[in-house]
Structures are given as structure tokens and as C-alpha cells.
Specification:
alpha+beta, Thrombin, subunit H, Methane Monooxygenase Hydroxylase, Chain G, domain 1, 2 domains, 5-stranded antiparallel beta sheet
Amino acid sequence: MSKSGLEFSVGDHVVYPAHGVGTIRGVETQEVAGMSLEVYIITFDHEKMTLRVPTKKAKTAGLRPLAEGNTVSQALTTLKGRARVKRTMWSRRAQEYEAKINSGDLISIAEVVRDLHRAENQPEQSYSERQLYESALDRMAREVAAIERIDREAAIGILTKSLVKAPVAAAAA
């Protein structure tokens, strides 16, 4: 909590579940239906969007600070794990992946990236699989970039390195 009693301050990077990483640009009071409402003004540069979230509803809306170091480590470890793909219809799996991406939870997003990642020697993805994969990878990369203070491309490099599995033959040698 900052000295103003608010959870976030101007300039803080935050994560909003449905949109990913944004920056708090200000806090202002607005008149809504004759009532005074204090709101965070959050900009999402990658979506060229501004969102106003009532300060008292920020937590219930899922607004959170950037992930801590141990969460990032867990997420990178998740990427290294074995893909877990359920044998359900694609439409059902796609809904589950979409829900994980929009949860804003870094580890859930990492699970989507891991499960939809395709190595060079694996079969081609469908268009919708590719879209979900790109969306999850982008969301994860933006948060890692903000945490590490690097650009998105460098963050994608880190994530991709975690996704590349070491050849099994090398492990036996």
C-alpha cells in the first residue's frame, strides 16, 4: 500500500487479466451516475488502449502487480515441462486455453505456451492453435520484459530457450 492508501502508484507496471501488462498513468476522480468514483488510468501501449478501473474494485477486477521472481522461475520451469494435452474436442480445449490466458496468471499462461508449442520436427499447428499460442507467448513475454526491464523480443528469446527441450540422446551420453 502506498502512502495515499492506494495499492498502486503512477508509473507502476500492473497486469490486468484480459489485457496483460499496462502502466498506471494516473489516478483521478470521475463523476459517474451522480457519484464520485476514484479510478486508476491504465494504458496498454501494445493495444493502444486506456482503461479506467475503480480503485476500490481493482483487486476484484484482478489487477495485480508484476509477478515476483519466484513466480517467474516457476513459469519458466513450467515451460520446460512435458506438454499436457487433453484428449477432448479442440473447441473445449481452446476455451480452456483462452480462459487460462485471460486469467492473467503467469503460470497458467506458461501452461498454454508449453502445451501449444511446436518444435521444428513436430506437425504443423492449425490456425486457431497458432493464434492461441502467439497470444499466450506475447502475454507472457510482455510481463517478463517488464519485470526484467528488457524489450519484448529479448523476453521471447528467454521463453523460447526454456521451451527448447534438450535432445534425449545428449542426456544419455
